[in-house]
Amino acid sequence: MLRRNSIVLLIAFLMSLFVFHSAEAETPDDGFKMAQIFSIDAGHSYVGFSIKYMGFAKVRGRFADFSGAIRYVDGDATKTSATVIIKTASLDTDHEFRDKDLKSANWFDAEKFPVIKFQSKRVEKSASGTEVIGDLTIKEVTKEVRIKMEGSSGVQKDIRDDTQIIFTGSTMIDRKVFGVMGENWSRVKEGMTAVASEVEIELSILGKQINAPNFRNWVRNVETPQGKLYQTISTKGLNDGLKEFDQLKAAGEQHLNENTLNTVGYMLLKEGKFDDALKVLVHNSASYPNAPNLFDSLAEGYAWKGDKANAIKYYKMALEKDPLNANAIEILRHLEK
After folding, report:
1. pTM exceeding the 0.70 threshold for the entire prediction
2. Do strands 91-92 and 57-63 pair parallel, antiparallel, or not at all (unpaired)?
3. Per-residue pLDDT reduced to its tens digit, 293-321
4. Which domains are present in the chain?
């Protein structure tokens, strides 16, 4: 016969097993690593749209200013995820009068609604191809959309030895569902409207990781502050390098700014010198406490080292300073999962 204390202990033990396995089932480890994160290279990417005018002619446009991050796991497309933030005012249809009208309250109301956001929720594969399903937010209206992907390049190296991934895809949306009304152009005449409700969105997205061989070009020139400081740290040690930075800053060095030491820190990070990189990034964020990007860099340093708690802490700080930091939003999704 079990005594009362033994029964209590047994029940407690069984409950702990239940809680453990329940938690494990709810938050499985999907193998997230920082090496799976690719920043969107807007200079080599395209976010465009086309819409029919008077039932036949197609008017095309694009958004020139956007940022984002992609998680890509080579060999498992279902783990792909992305966060993209688009500046509404960057809309361009190559027609000044039309662009001014589109940015006005008649259409996108760019002043009141400065960003368009997309965040993926899942990826589905079928016989007909791959679709990325996610939430599209325009004018604070959020609707689920399905982006039909035309495939991806897979992970590959470019001529600079950087790692990249390229996606292309498209989707159709009804602009009126998102409150993009264009009342003056939506009246029906002879069975058609001047501007159609259906809009085709076309995407070509390049995600990139800048690797050490290419990044080293940013610190190669010892005539620049970042090159000089990197050389000092490499030859004389971290303390001498940070001391030299403080002296240059106190002297009002003309070309010294928040990016100088940040660049040095990233070079060390890409060389796998995580502890030294973090000391540099901590020192830099303390020197420029109002610079949002420095907290994102510091968070990235902790994430690469595997310090999840501090990575989350500093990504949240980066978001407090810049709520439109798509990189921080995307990475936090996985760190907090």
Report:
1. yes
2. antiparallel
3. 999 999 999 999 999 999 999 999 999 99
4. 34-209 (2.40.128.110), 212-335 (1.25.40.10)
